[in-house]
Amino acid sequence: MATLTDPPSESFKLSMLIYDTRYRSITFQVIALILFLTLIGWLINNTVQNLQDLGKEPSFGFMNQPAGYDINQTLIPYNSQDTHLRAAFVGILNTLLVAVMGCITATVVGVFVGVLRLSGNWLVARLMTVYVEIFRNVPVLMWIVLCMAILIESLPSPSDFRGDDPEATMSFFDTVAITNRGVYVPAVEFSRGLPALPVGNAFDLSLNFVVALLVLLGGIWASGAIRRRADAIQNSTGVRPRTWHLRVGVILIPLIAVLTILGFNLQYPELKGFNFGGGLYMRNSLIALWLALSLYTAAFVAEIVRAGIMAVSHGQTEAAAALGLRPRRVMSLVVLPQALRIIIPPLISQYLNLTKNSSLAIAVGYMDVTGTLMGITLNQTGRELETVLLGMLVYLTISLIISAVMNLYNSRVALVER
Amino acid sequence: MKKTAIFGALTVAGLMAGAAGAATLDDVKARGKLNCGVSTGLAGFSNPDANGNWEGFDVAVCRAVAAAVLGDPQAVEFVPTTGKTRFTALASGEIDMLARNTTWTLSRDADLKFTFVGVNYYDGQGFMVPKELGVSSAKELDGATVCIQTGTTTELNLADFFRKNNMSYEPVPIETNAEAQQQYLAGACDVYTTDASGLASTRATFEDPSAHAVLPEIISKEPLGPLVRHGDDEWGDITRWTLNALVAAEELGITSANVAEMAASAGDNPEINRLLGTEGNLGEMLGLEADWAVKAISAGGNYGEIFESNIGESTPIGLARGLNAQWTDGGLIYSPPFR
Amino acid sequence: MSNTHADTVSYVRDTMLMQQDPPSTSVGVVGWARGNLFSGWFNTILTILSAAFVLWLLAGIVPWVVSPTWNASSLTECREILAGHEGACWGVIHERWNQLLFGFYPQELYWRPVLALVLLLIALGPILFADFVSPKILPFSAVYPFIGAWLLWGGTIWTPVMAALGFVVGYGVFVLAQRFIVPGLAFLAAVLAALVWWLVIMPFALPDLARLIPIGLEAVQSRQFGGFMLSITIGVTAILFSLPIGILLALGRRSDLPLVKWLCVGFIEFIRGVPLITLLFVASTLLNIFLPPGTNFDIILRVMIMVTLFASAYMAEVIRGGLAALPKGQYEGADSLGLDYWQAQRLIIMPQALKISIPGIVSTFIGVFKDTTLVSIISMFDPLGLANAIRADSAWNGIYWELFIFIGAVFFIFCFSMSRYSMYLERKLQTGHR
């Protein structure tokens, strides 16, 4: 009987780094690391050398210099004496604003169109197909430029509202002015409002809105509590008490009371001097960008939604019907949850695309972060390296946050596989 | 493998393109072409025609330098640049000179490390309004919506002007002149502000130019001129004196029509002789041939001819000489002596 | 039973009734319309509303489009021809047609980009139209990049030949070295050999070769590229180069080596996380700073590099999808045959993964092609950039819709046909499943 001998005790040989699979992976990784570090080092070395030749010192000190230029749409207070840093921040907020607005509209329009494409009405289905194909196959930059042109050319200018027999009048009972500079809608005002609360040096927080929001949220929570109590009663006694009037009241009455105490009223836009004054002003650049991005992305969303609905097999619908579910419940309990799983991942990447495409705002002069930090600030200071890298960092952060949040949601709706 | 191929090919391309060394003149001569940065399209100053030939006031300066250095006004590669890319293109050596209505400021000279070789057009920022608005002075523009072209000093001047006069305004930043014109005509802004020359040339192309007025206030000084990199004074001298030669030629009555005749033999006027190389060795001092100025002038004529044929009163742009008349006619255009 | 039946029923039909035609309202045009357009009041309203919308749109657009201004040579002339009527001014398209297609490419050399495009379609034939084109011309597809580049840029023929020889040298070294060392190291050696060839031998030999055997085309500067030709050149180059990079990145992302994996993930997520326009800013303002002092190549090449990097991140994700779609059995089968990693990839995995990725690759191409319009923002004369330059010409100052509609229409035709093609492919590839 041959006894099993111990495997020959291995002494480490240099050749094992290449021929032994256990070590080879380490060898390759070390090589990769060395190559990568060399590449990075090479790039940094070149950059330093080139900047030295140009006599420039990389530094972010310019961000604290006064910017010197004005921005039309500012979500936080800003004037031309503020720093470049604050100007960049104004730009970031503008980017986020248009991205959020665009994502919401794109989803709504996209779902609507996607469902209509499956409609039994031949004409409607064809129309939606034409919409999807036209918007998908023309560059988004062209849509942005075209939307702007259409707004500017087809809407009346503020001067058309002037005079005794004006060419244009305000819409919605004289509350909304639609002009080719933008749309003026009534603004919310509190005549007996609370003082604004400064948050750091960055911006002022309106306590009025905070209070109103808190009251609204409290009302919704209370209404939820009433519903849960009704559920409990129904479970124990089988009779569900009528609660809808209570639930509406608990939300509305405190809210109306608080708004009255704060002196809530609407401030309507009116023609003053060159422009409309008062009211909330949505600039044309924002509307054009918002419209173009939403319509362009909605075309992709529509395809995603259509594919998602079609991917739920017909057997599921039939089985649900066989269980005696009504059509609405079939949709909400069986089809949609399954379709959603297919829809969400590509939808996330569409949201990301929309956010990134919002950087084309410079084509219509919307002052997002590309327009402020990587636009005017770059032009005025000549700091290409710093501004472009900062701008990329901003977009990267936004993208990573969006995908992280959406992936979290995705992992909650994802099918748990056995 | 292909990845490395790209880098390899690029490095080769880089090597072949030649290092942007200190001696720009040698590079230009070796290349046989002058790389000149211009604007992507500004009527009268630089724009490509249907055949891809560039024309305009700034373009003529490039052609004059190419003629002086290489003897051929066509030996120019025009590199279109935007407000954002122009300085990087010059700093990195992609272009040898920038002739793109660029305002001469201290920070561009000292901080961005460029040398302005002179001024080929004295401009200033103005305002244009529709006449029906009934505005006669820029001081009445409180609350107006103002279209501005971004990427220039314009937005800074505008912010300063309105702040100084304690007025408010709504800026509408726009990338190109063509877009700005469209928005202004549609009434999306009350006022259009840019350099006065730009206003005049824009107004000239309107369907009804008489319905629009340029306000009398000029709110800034905008000396526009060609520029080169710091650190190559020989090249700076060549561009500076080519520009001066064009100016001096107008003052001395040398035109593209008579330059050949005057250069054929030395005449009575010693300054003309020195300029045209029939006397002295000014060309040699610059490192150029003796007849450099003759070639530069015959490329597109003297300063006055270039002005008249590109942006003068006989063109659609229709600019008057104004500040850009010769100093003998009460303008600011003045060339140091050729001696 | 039959008796009772006979008692109660006085008449029994013993032949089948002739089948009747369906009612006239449910066949033909009327029936179709009832079924598809007017089934129920809601659908009827929808139909009427949409029809009204379409008619309104057409009534607005058609009179404007049909406008006898094809031969006008300036906007003023158009206004004279139209004499106050609303109408398009198509003269600008007529006059600048060549420029919109070819940019500033020398007019007498237009045959070169056209030939390059035709050859491109031929070279892609065996890949895209595998049913109709014989795979025998695959070697031609392999050398096409060199032919295409030579046709577009011109210059001496030795540049593309020498560049191609670099690959041959690399391959030779690889085959030779493989006899002595493991494939990984052999590959490294091959890369080094090719690099030496391109960086050391080629720059030395090229000028002499070009002088000794002067065969070549007239050189064209890439600055003269423009219009749709520029868009297509950038798009095709980016896709062509991004394919190998994308494959490597996708393999890297699925690799067992954590370091390689994280480097690839980092690169892909970084590129996908920033907008293309910022990468173009890098190309136009920063790339020269990142490269060795004195390196200087023109903006089109720089843009091509950045767009290639951009496309390769997306390509990597497409190919990763293709790899993930392969059944696990394929990998296990390859392992059981005793193939090593690269052999398995080359012989089993990649051919299948790439085939299922083709629709995705085509969509990526459509995306990149559309995104090339962004280069107009960094002062390049793609169709949109040209539109701005044309509008700066005093003859056409003030023109607007005509150029954009023309450019949009051309983009639509290109992208739409490509997306239809990719859908056809998808259907074709799907037959095996379900």
TrEMBL record, chain A:
Residues making up the signal peptide according to the UniProt record: none
Record-level Gene Ontology MF annotations: transmembrane transporter activity
PROSITE patterns: ABC_TM1
Subcellular localization, as worded in the UniProt entry: Cell inner membrane; Cell membrane
Keyword Transit peptide belongs to the record: no
ABC transmembrane type-1 domain ranges (all copies): 92-406
One protein family per Pfam: BPD_transp_1
Record membrane topology: Multi-pass membrane protein
Entry keyword Cell cycle: no
Coiled coil: none
Single Gene Ontology BP annotation: amino acid transport
Alphabetic keyword roster: Amino-acid transport, Cell membrane, Membrane, Transmembrane, Transmembrane helix, Transport
Superkingdom, natural source: Bacteria
Annotated GO CC locations: ATP-binding cassette (ABC) transporter complex
Residues that span the membrane, as ranges: 26-44, 87-113, 134-152, 205-226, 246-266, 286-309, 358-376, 388-409
PANTHER family in UniProt: AMINO-ACID ABC TRANSPORTER PERMEASE PROTEIN YHDX-RELATED, MEMBRANE COMPONENT OF AMINO ACID ABC TRANSPORTER
NCBIfam families xref list: HEQRo_perm_3TM (TIGR01726)
Family recorded in the similarity comment: Belongs to the binding-protein-dependent transport system permease family. HisMQ subfamily.
Protein name as catalogued: Amino acid ABC transporter permease
Organism for this UniProt entry: Pseudooceanicola nanhaiensis
Native organism taxonomy: Bacteria, Pseudomonadati, Pseudomonadota, Alphaproteobacteria, Rhodobacterales
UniProtKB/TrEMBL annotation, chain B:
Segments traversing the membrane: none
BP GO annotations: amino acid transport
Keywords for this protein: Signal, Transport
Domain of life according to the entry: Bacteria
Annotated ranges, domain Solute-binding protein family 3/N-terminal: 33-262
Signal peptide: 1-22
A Pfam family that the UniProt record links to this protein: SBP_bac_3
InterPro entries for the chain: Bact_solute-bind_prot3, Solute-binding_3/MltF_N
The keyword Signal appears for this protein: yes
PANTHER family: AMINO ACID ABC TRANSPORTER PERMEASE (PTHR30085), AMINO-ACID ABC TRANSPORTER-BINDING PROTEIN YHDW-RELATED (PTHR30085:SF7)
Family: Belongs to the bacterial solute-binding protein 3 family.
Protein name according to UniProt: Amino acid ABC transporter substrate-binding protein
Organism: Pseudooceanicola nanhaiensis
High-level lineage: Bacteria, Pseudomonadati, Pseudomonadota, Alphaproteobacteria, Rhodobacterales
UniProtKB/TrEMBL annotation, chain C:
Gene3D superfamilies for this protein: MetI-like
Molecular function GO labels: transmembrane transporter activity
Subcellular location as annotated: Cell inner membrane; Cell membrane
A Gene Ontology cellular-component term: ATP-binding cassette (ABC) transporter complex
Domain (ABC transmembrane type-1): residue spans on this chain: 228-422
PROSITE patterns linked: ABC_TM1
Topology in the lipid bilayer: Multi-pass membrane protein
Top-rank lineage group of the source organism: Bacteria
Short name of one Pfam family: BPD_transp_1
Family: Belongs to the binding-protein-dependent transport system permease family. HisMQ subfamily.
NCBIfam families assigned to the protein according to its UniProt record, in alphabetical order: HEQRo_perm_3TM
Name of the protein described by the UniProt record: Amino acid ABC transporter permease
Source species of the chain: Pseudooceanicola nanhaiensis
